[in-house]
């Protein structure tokens, strides 16, 4: 269980810190003004509102460790799960993401960073008994 929690926390922390930085950086370049208030807003509320995502990622990681599957399959399932909970959480938070096309650009950095960190961080299941 310790490995599951460590991996899940790393992915969650990376996503909640790097994604707002990337979004605000790109937004600042495109709009030619730095919005520090938006960065702090996204960091504080992102940490708070993404706690259920941490729990879902932990439960998914812990659940996948009980199945005998390759790490590639486990990472693929976790990637799809993470994209689903990111889209659902933004849909709930922004009340209809699909109707406002400008808000979809806020979701992209979160999905990219989360999926990349799932594939970058070390993920090992429990040792197999022979």
Provide the domain count: 1
- The whole-angstrom Rg is 16 Å
Count of β-strands: 0
Uncertain spans, ≥5 residues at pLDDT below 50? none
Distance between the amino and carboxyl termini: 20 Å
Q: Tell me the strand percentage band.
A: under 5%
Structural class: mainly alpha
Number of helices: 5
Order of helices and strands: HHHHH
Main sheet? none
The coarse silhouette is: elongated
Helix content: over 70%
Mean pLDDT: 81
Can you tell me about this structure?
The chain is an all-alpha fold. It has one domain. The chain is built from 5 helices and no strands. The protein is elongated and about 50 Å long. The two termini are 20 Å apart.
Kindly list the characteristics that best describe this protein:
5 helices; 0% strand; single chain; 130 residues; elongated; mainly alpha
Give the secondary structure arrangement, pairings included.
Layout: H1 2-31, H2 36-49, H3 51-64, H4 71-94, H5 104-120
Helix pairs in contact: 1-2, 1-3, 1-5, 3-4, 4-5
Concise overview:
With 130 residues, this protein is an all-alpha fold. It is 76% helix and 0% strand.
């Amino acid at each position: 269980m310790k490995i599951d929690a460590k991996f899940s926390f790393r992915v969650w922390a990376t996503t909640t810190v790097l994604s707002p930085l990337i979004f605000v950086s790109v937004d600042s370049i495109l709009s030619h003004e730095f919005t520090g208030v938006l960065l702090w807003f996204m960091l504080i509320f992102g940490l708070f509102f993404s706690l259920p995502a941490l729990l879902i990622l932990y439960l998914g990681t812990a659940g996948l460790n009980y199945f005998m599957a390759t790490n590639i399959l486990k990472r693929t399932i976790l990637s799809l799960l993470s994209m689903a909970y990111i889209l659902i959480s933004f849909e709930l938070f922004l009340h209809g993401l699909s109707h406002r096309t400008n808000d979809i650009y806020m979701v992209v950095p979160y999905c990219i960073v989360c999926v990349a960190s799932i594939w970058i961080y070390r993920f090992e299941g429990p040792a197999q008994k022979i």
